[in-house]
Design goal:
Elements (H helix, E strand, L loop, with lengths): L3 E8 L8 E5 L4 E4 L4 H15 L10 E10 L11 H14 L9 E11 L6 E8 L1
Parallel strand pairs: 4-5
Antiparallel strand pairs: 1-6, 2-3, 4-6
Helix pairs in contact: 1-2
């Protein structure tokens, strides 16, 4: 494996990136269907930008690891969202933060949801490594 491109903890309640919905029928403006998804993506992007270790997007293949800390009673239910949709928001944030040029570069990934109790902090831990 190559060098780490980013290692970061982003606190907050992880949100999925789901379907888009029409926000304004007159103008055709679109918005995220999941309430809070756009704000969560902004928080992750900011954290990734601050933690990145290179000034330009990496251009080669990468491995990404995501660990989502969720309320313990929601981990295995549909309420916190599907893992693939949680990942989609992280991968898009990595692109916006210029960790990589495009998420097609992710050739290996590992992800999981873990439960945190009432005193635990929700968020996502992300590590991107060059291959």
């Amino acid at each position: 494996m190559g060098p780490e491109l980013v290692r970061v903890w982003c606190p907050g309640r992880p949100k999925t990136k789901g379907s888009m919905r029409v926000a304004n029928a007159r103008t055709g403006a679109m918005a995220q269907a999941v309430v809070g998804s756009s704000r969560w993506a902004q928080l992750m992007t900011k954290a990734l930008v601050q933690a990145r270790r290179q000034p330009e997007p990496y251009a080669g293949p990468v491995r990404i690891v995501c660990v989502f800390a969720m309320p313990v009673d929601n981990v295995a239910t549909g309420r916190p969202g599907d893992l693939d949709k949680l990942i989609r928001n992280v991968w898009d944030a990595c692109t916006k933060a210029r960790i990589w040029a495009d998420d097609v570069q992710a050739v290996e990934s590992a992800e999981r949801k873990i439960g945190v109790g009432p005193a635990g902090e929700c968020g996502v831990y992300v590590v991107v490594t060059a291959l």
